[in-house]
Amino acid sequence: MPQAAKKQTTDRKKPTRRKPRAQAKGHGNAVFKKFPSWAWWTGGFFVLALYVWLFWYFFVGPTGLRWRAWYGDQKYPDGFEVRGIDISHYQGTIDWDALQHATINGSPLRFIMMKSTEGANRMDDTFNDNFYQAREYGYIRGAYHFWSTSSSAKAQARYFLKQVHLEEGDLPPILDVEKKPAGQSVEDFQRDILTWLHTVEDRYHVKPIIYTYYKFKQSYLSAPVFDDYPYWIAHYYVEKLGYKGEWRFWQHTDSGQLPGIKGYVDLNVYNGSYYDLRKMTIGN
């Protein structure tokens, strides 16, 4: 090969393969160009509307559990003469001397429910003191167990019975149930709830009270077998309880304020007279 031709061959650069950036970019644009702009705006509007509706339905609307920021301060439903509160460690240390002079919408405080246990191994830090003080200050007292989705019904019932010792004059034991385990059928969930109720009922020989909120009752505890139990329904910021079945207690707000308690406290009414309430207690 001639020297000049050899040099020209040596100096020639090998072609490099370029990445098809333009092609890839064009493919991405094709996805967006597949639908006109008005379709994207319409779809976005419906997604936003769905989000707003779900937020309203589950958190803000009257059938939701709570949304103090929207509905404001507490309201006192008319037509009820027996009023009470429920407390837990969230209320901290209570000044019982100040609380004994408290009234709710002009009516004296008659009963106090308090959190006792949760799951199969958790005790409310303030329960023992609250439970003792409520009796000392003359209130009808009640103790509730907070249902856990991570412990068996039997274990939870046994733990409640081990830690809580109700006496004559106390309200029947209370089961606070607000959640169903994900993936569990409604039938199995109801069977677990009945296991707790029957186990505790065998000890005290009274029907336990079921606490739940309005929507949960409709969705998961609507079987006729649960109609035998007295209900304590949570339904906030409405003038009238939406639940149409029989009920004994209505937790109508979570934003009550009373002397002796720092911050907010739940307010409740009893659906009946004070005489009826005393008849409901253990031993009466």
Series of H and E elements = HHHHEHEEEHEHEHEHEEEH
Rg is: 31 Å
Q: What's the average pLDDT?
A: 85
Q: How much β-strand is present in the residues? A: 15-25%
Strand order of the largest sheet: 1-3-5-6-7-8-9-10
Structural class: alpha/beta
The geometry reads as globular
| CA-CA gap between termini | 120 Å
Question: How many runs of DSSP E, i.e. beta strands?
Answer: 10
Bin the helical content: 25-40%
What is the element layout, followed by pairings?
Elements: H1 3-11, H2 21-33, H3 37-60, H4 68-71, E1 82-87, H5 96-99, E2 103-104, E3 107-118, E4 122-123, H6 127-136, E5 140-146, H7 153-163, E6 174-176, H8 186-204, E7 209-213, H9 214-220, E8 231-234, E9 249-256, E10 265-270, H10 274-280
Parallel strand pairs: 1-3, 3-5, 5-6, 6-7, 7-8, 8-9
Antiparallel strand pairs: 1-10, 2-3, 3-4, 9-10
Task: Throw out a few tags for this protein.
alpha/beta; 10 helices; 284 residues; single chain; eight-stranded mixed barrel; globular
Write a structural description.
This protein has 284 residues and is of the alpha/beta class. Strands 1-3-5-6-7-8-9-10 form an eight-stranded mixed beta barrel, surrounded by four helices. Residues 62-69 have low confidence and may be disordered. Helices cover 38% and strands 19% of the residues. The N and C termini lie far apart (120 Å). It contains ten helices and ten strands. Helix 7 (153-163) packs parallel to helix 8 (186-204). 32% of the residues are buried. The chain is globular and about 75 Å long.
